[in-house]
Design brief:
CATH topology of chain A: Mth169, Chain: A
Structural class of chain A: alpha+beta
CATH architecture of chain A: 2-Layer Sandwich
Number of strands of chain A: 3
Strand content of chain A: 35-45%
Number of domains of chain A: 1
Strand order of the largest sheet of chain A: 2-1-3
Largest interface: A-B, 35 and 35 residues
CATH class of chain A: Alpha Beta
CATH superfamily of chain A: Phosphoribosylformylglycinamidine synthase subunit PurS
Number of helices of chain A: 2
Helix content of chain A: 25-40%
Distance between the termini of chain A: 8 Å
Oligomer: homodimer
Chain lengths: 83, 83
């Protein structure tokens, strides 16, 4: 079966996010005063060939742990659906 | 009311994604052969002070159109919830 995983990788809440801060002020400068606390991370989409959703989840966890996520600075969440 | 918006900005399907290609081969190299077609974009979280969900949506659309998204190369989707 084929699964699609959508992974969000965000800077930890405890850490500053200078890029997000810059975007927050830029948005205020162009008149969008209602926006606050912008934080910027990465979104990764991938496809996984696997026998079950559980196995696909394990593969995504392994990919995040070994390559995609720096756990000192980032946290991740993901969702998986069959396609 | 305060709303939280989660925005995904991805490279258009018609465009190559060299970063995603590199990650696909790296994952294969560390033994995750089941993964294919990795694409990498941005995930942006922001908070919006607004009277209604519809108004908050408009603000997010305006932020994406004016600042966050390069529509020649990227597309975006978002979800909003009250917090």
């Amino acid at each position: 079966m084929k699964f699609k995983a959508e992974i969000d990788i965000m800077p930890l809440d405890a850490l500053l996010d200078p890029q997000g801060k810059a975007v927050t002020s830029s948005l205020k400068n162009i008149g969008l005063e209602a926006v606050s606390n912008v934080r910027i991370g990465r979104h990764i989409r991938m496809f996984i060939e696997s026998d079950s959703k559980e196995e696909a989840s394990k593969i995504v966890d392994e990919a995040c742990d070994k390559l995609l996520v720096n756990k000192i600075m980032e946290s991740y969440t993901f969702s998986i659906e069959e396609v």
